[in-house]
Design goal:
Number of strands: 0
Largest sheet: none
Number of helices: 3
Order of helices and strands: HHH
Radius of gyration: 15 Å
């Protein structure tokens, strides 16, 4: 059984990842996230600190899986997934009072 972070937020898009294992629910079989397999070289890239350690949400896992089938470089997989899953992050400015 994979080791999961207790964080319930997807590190790619910021949405809830709905991972049963990460949320601390009792084990009742494999979580949906265990049906995905990402390439070893991409997993190693993530382990080196590319993102905070946490489970991805289903939409991000699906996108990463799709990209990993056609893109080799882990940096490019992550960059393209971020562009798709976080398309228009707003800029925040604080006005002086």
């Amino acid at each position: 059984m994979p080791v999961h972070s207790p964080d319930t937020t997807c590190p790619l898009c910021g949405e809830a990842n709905l991972c049963r294992s990460a949320s601390g629910q009792p084990y009742k079989g494999a979580c949906w996230c265990e049906e995905f397999t990402l390439p070893v070289h991409f997993l190693r890239y993530l382990e080196e600190g590319a993102l905070a350690p946490a489970c991805f949400c289903r939409a991000c896992f699906t996108e990463l899986d799709r990209l990993a089938r056609s893109v080799d470089a882990p940096e490019d997989i992550l960059q393209q997934a971020q562009a798709i899953r976080r398309p228009n992050e707003p800029d925040f400015y604080l006005d002086e009072l």
